[in-house]
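Amino Acid Chain and Its Fold in Token Form
===========================================
Purpose: to set a sequence beside its fold so the mapping can be learned.
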Amino acid sequence: MESNKVAVIGAGLMGNGIAQACASAGYDVVNIDTFESAIEKSKAAVEKLFSRKVAKGSMTEEKKAEVLGRLTYSSKFEDVKGAFLVVEAVPEKIEIKKDTFKKVDELADAETVIVSNTSGLSISEIASVTNRPDKVMGAHFFYPAPVMKLLELVRGLVTSDETYETVKGFAEKIGKTTVDAPEFPGFMVNRILVPMQNEAAFMVMEGSKPEDVDNAMKLGCNHPMGPIELTDFVGIDTMLATMTGLYNGFHDSKYRPCPLLETMVKSGMLGKKSGLGFYKYDEKGNKIGSNF
């Protein structure tokens, strides 16, 4: 399919970042979201980011105008028409993903490839609601999408070689390094990383101080961020959901979620985004002390 258009579904943090990355790489991008408030927030965030880059001298006004000129917004799913690739970046819930894919499948051109930015859901299950399961696969970006170099490529059971090559070529054009991840819960990065975060939560539950656990991994393993800090950063609810997905997917006790995480989520302690998690945060999101 001869097209330079990419459609990104979802204007949240991930969708916004993916759209930026695509536009910066030379693609004509439409960022679609059914919530006008999300679109306006996304527009403002991109403008603010690029203006900051211009002020710092890392981007010219001309380049800013060029990239923004390739980035448009819409609240209509019909605008996936003409895109050779659609990237879904909606909330990490299987029913929302499947509903989105069903809509896109009905409206997109027959040759359009549709990828999901899921961090661990079944690509084959998502593809099952479409009439083009061979043109569906996973493309898991990492936050922040314009900066992080990795892109996990995940094939479903019937993803075609042609679809894989299309997505791999797209990934290379936007400057990503790809890894082929298996279609099992957690794929590759989260399957390794999240159990470490879960074990760190067990240590806090057993009496270790969050800062001691973080310092041990930062200074002993040269990690840039400790596992407890990372859990607060991504959201304790998000981390618990991922760990629960691993546990339910593999039916293996080694993936049992830490009970402390469940209690914290029920208590509304979600980490940095709620101002309280394993650490306490001020209104600007700065860490001001331990909560344990």
Summary: The chain has a mean pLDDT of 96. The first strand starts at residue 5 and ends at 9. The domain at 190-290 is CATH 1.10.1040.10 (N-(1-d-carboxylethyl)-l-norvaline Dehydrogenase; domain 2). DSSP finds eleven helices and ten strands in the chain.
